[in-house]
Design a protein that fits this description.
The complex is a heterodimer of chains A (about 425) and B (about 270).
Chain A (H helix, E strand, L loop, with lengths): L12 H21 L12 H20 L3 H6 L2 H20 L10 H6 L6 H22 L7 H20 L4 E8 L4 E5 L5 E17 L3 E6 L14 E2 L5 E4 L2 E15 L3 E4 L6 E10 L5 E7 L10 E3 L3 E5 L4 E12 L4 E7 L4 E3 L2 E8 L9 E8 L3 H21 L13
Antiparallel strand pairs in A: 1-17, 2-3, 3-13, 4-5, 4-12, 6-7, 7-8, 7-9, 9-10, 11-12, 13-14, 15-16, 16-17
Helix pairs in contact in A: 1-4, 1-6, 2-6, 4-6, 6-7, 7-8
Chain B lengths: L5 H20 L7 H27 L7 H23 L2 H20 L17 H31 L7 H30 L7 H21 L5 H19 L18
The chains are: A alpha+beta (about 425), B mainly alpha (about 270).
Chain lengths: ~425, ~270
């Protein structure tokens, strides 16, 4: 590499880096021509045609030009490493720059904050896919048992990048807002494009399981809870005793659902809008002063309650964290058949080629929400990406298994 | 009360590891030292396992949610891997530096006590939770040790202490670690699809996990290539671990990651 002039064969790192620079320059020109707008990726059937043409081109090149110096170089380790470095650089920029759309951003900065949909990214993906694809073909034809692990890793990765990039144009995601008792078959995406589904959904019941609420000691005038204080934010359960700073705190009563009664204080209730409340006794260890009272995080119906501690601190209750939330939904498809199913976070539901995900609810109403927000997602290229994932899993297990038996060049230990 | 009795467990772990390492250093001078070294180190590993087990039972959920909890697993797996690497290669310096790193992690956890908390957000209630995090932690432990070996190798090169380069050992650990990290990445993608309907969203943690994965990919390919420069290879291995650390903890401080779904909860 050292005693060789540039472009003198066999090519190596220098030419590979030069190719990256040329690709960046070409991408910049494409960005200028398209006014730095994010690319809209092609959808069916154009993406499929591109996929087939590209694969035919790779196979053709491999069949007829496999042994030419340029194609050998394209499937060599220097191009592979430069292709990864190019991809790393772009990913690093994605990982460092917040990528929300900021209005008023234009030109270079616009493409920089949306790199995943820029020409730089396309150039990098094409370079990586070409280098990787040629290596896969070189090892796969003719197929040898010894190359299976290698192929699982390389072809798996190739499939993932290939199908995920080309398939993203066909990926559809729509949000469906369901109101209890009202059938809905319309969903809208982020660009406010709405579609009608071949089925309608009706929310029969929305349910949240909560954890107990937590108690926090807060300094007067502070605008947030100091989570570093030992024991701060402990779960409220009856008879639990904890020390926060100089205060011994005892939970004498915990009511998961309650309303305020002007005579009795907080009392258990199943009314809509009932909120958690806790009867707390606090003893200051330094002066033995004991304060007792109710705390509650409140709700749209119940006023929050706090306990003031000698003008220095106060005790408050935080809103309980949801343990899980789910929706019971009645689904009516075109053939008028009604089915009732439950959708839960981590348990999506498949229907007519769509997958339905439990996403959110009316956060202000919390456990009394009458609204459930469902995402309907369709991704026809997913099986191909999954095939890539499973090949990669197989490849990893193979790598783990053979570990140290991987051969290296003999002169590796010289430096 | 923070983690129940962590200081006692931390102290026991420290005593066992210091004892085990000292006995290993003295194995040529004292008979039976080898046996004691094994017993002490295994007791150190067992102490950590018991603490994790107790914490799991008390919390009634896998203790894998907070940064501190992942560090507990890390020191456990790291010590396990160091012990087996030491038994396989019999390279004392790896045991010494490796156990110092384990004790560093234990000390860090001691100095940063966490309030234990039973809550777990709904997205984490999945059978993917444990395998996803555990393979990552095991992978991180392998790669952490490979970084230590890279440092030892670089020290040997720069100070010409001795020309015995332990690249084969570093390779094994890097391959094991890389396989685990690949599995973690794919499990994470499969899980994300099930929770949010997307297997990849360029969430900062995902992006940095990908960067970590690709950094090790470079190391593996550099090693396969006819590159006569051990220095470059070892630096790559060490710097890849720096990227890994950013992905693991540094991410919490990045402005781009403030809305990440992966930032450890407080």
């Amino acid at each position: 590499m050292i005693n060789r002039k540039i472009f003198q064969k066999p090519w190596g790192y220098l030419e590979a880096f030069l190719l990256v620079i040329i690709l960046i320059a070409l991408a910049l020109i494409a960005e200028l021509l398209t006014d730095f707008k994010p690319i809209t990726l092609p959808n069916w059937p154009y993406n499929f045609r591109i996929a087939i043409s590209y694969i035919i081109l790779l196979v053709f090149v491999n069949l007829f030009y496999k042994n030419t110096p340029v194609i050998k170089w394209l499937s060599s380790i220097p191009t592979c490493i430069t292709a990864i470095i190019f991809f790393i650089t772009l990913s690093l920029a994605i990982g460092l720059v917040p990528h929300e759309d900021i209005p008023g951003k234009s030109g270079l900065m616009l493409s920089f904050s949306n790199l995943q949909r820029s020409w730089y990214f396309i150039a990098s993906a094409v370079y990586l896919l070409t280098s990787l694809g040629l290596v896969v073909l070189r090892r796969a034809l003719p197929l040898n048992k010894r190359n299976l692990g290698f192929l699982a890793n390389h072809f798996g990765l190739w499939l993932i990048i290939f199908a995920a990039s080309l398939g993203s144009g066909d990926r559809k995601s729509f949000q469906i807002n369901l109101e209890e008792g009202k059938p809905n078959q319309i969903g809208c995406n982020q660009e406010d494009v709405c579609i009608e589904f071949p089925f309608s959904l009706k929310l029969l019941n929305f349910h949240i399981d909560d954890f107990p609420a937590k108690v926090a000691l807060v300094k007067n005038g502070a605008d947030k809870i100091d989570t570093k204080i030992k024991n701060n934010l402990f779960l409220l359960e009856k008879n639990v005793e904890k020390e926060i700073k100089d205060y011994e705190i005892k939970v004498k009563e915990y009511l998961p659902l309650s309303v305020y009664d002007s005579v009795k204080g907080f009392v258990s209730s199943k009314d809509i809008g009932a909120a958690p409340a806790a009867l707390i006794s606090v003893r200051n260890k330094n002066n033995e002063i004991i304060i007792e009272g109710w705390i509650s995080c409140g709700s749209f119906k119940v006023k929050p309650a706090i306990i003031g501690l000698e003008d220095k601190y106060f005790l408050l209750m935080t809103n309980p964290d949801p343990k899980k939330f789910s929706s019971i939904i009645e689904i009516k498809s075109k053939n008028e058949k009604k089915i009732i199913k439950q959708i839960e976070v981590n348990r999506p539901l498949s229907i007519s080629g769509w997958k339905l995900y439990q996403m959110s609810y009316d956060l202000k109403m919390g456990r009394y929400s009458k609204i459930s927000i469902i995402d309907a997602i369709r991704d026809p290229w997913l099986p191909v990406v999954y095939l890539g994932f499973f090949l990669l899993i197989a490849g990893s297990i193979y790598l783990f298994w053979i570990g140290r038996n991987i051969r290296h060049d003999e002169n590796e230990n010289k430096f | 009360m923070g983690w129940i009795d962590f200081p006692i467990f931390a102290l026991l772990t420290t005593i066992f590891f210091i004892g085990g390492t000292l006995f290993a250093c003295l194995k040529k001078k004292i008979s039976q030292a080898k046996k004691y070294s094994d017993i002490y180190i295994l007791l150190g590993i067992l102490t950590q396992a018991i603490f994790i087990g107790i914490l799991w039972i008390i919390l009634n959920r896998p203790p894998l949610r907070t940064a501190g909890e992942t560090r507990l697993w890390y020191s456990f797996f790291l010590s396990l891997i160091i012990y087996f690497t030491y038994k396989r290669w019999n390279y004392l310096i790896v045991l010494i530096v490796g156990n110092l790193m384990v004790l560093g992690v234990v000390l860090f956890n001691y100095l940063h006590p966490e309030n234990y908390d039973k809550t777990l957000m709904p997205a984490l209630l999945s059978y993917w939770f444990v395998p996803h995090v555990i393979v990552y932690i095991i992978g991180y432990a392998f790669l952490g040790l490979s970084a230590i070996i890279a440092l030892i190798g670089l020290f040997q090169i720069y100070f010409s202490v001795c020309k015995y380069i332990i690249l084969e050992m570093a390779d094994n650990l890097a391959y094991f670690g890389y396989s685990c990290v690949t599995l973690g990445l794919v499990f994470g993608a499969l899980w994300a699809k099930e929770v949010w309907g997307n297997y990849w969203t360029w969430d900062p943690k995902e992006t940095w996990a990908l960067l970590t994965w690709m950094s090790y990919l470079i190391y593996i390919h550099l090693r396969k290539h006819k590159l006569n420069n051990t220095k470059t290879v070892l630096w790559t291995l060490f710097l890849a671990f720096v990227v890994l650390l950013v992905a693991w903890f540094g991410i919490n401080y990045l402005p781009s990651a403030q809305n990440s779904v992966h930032v450890y909860s407080n």
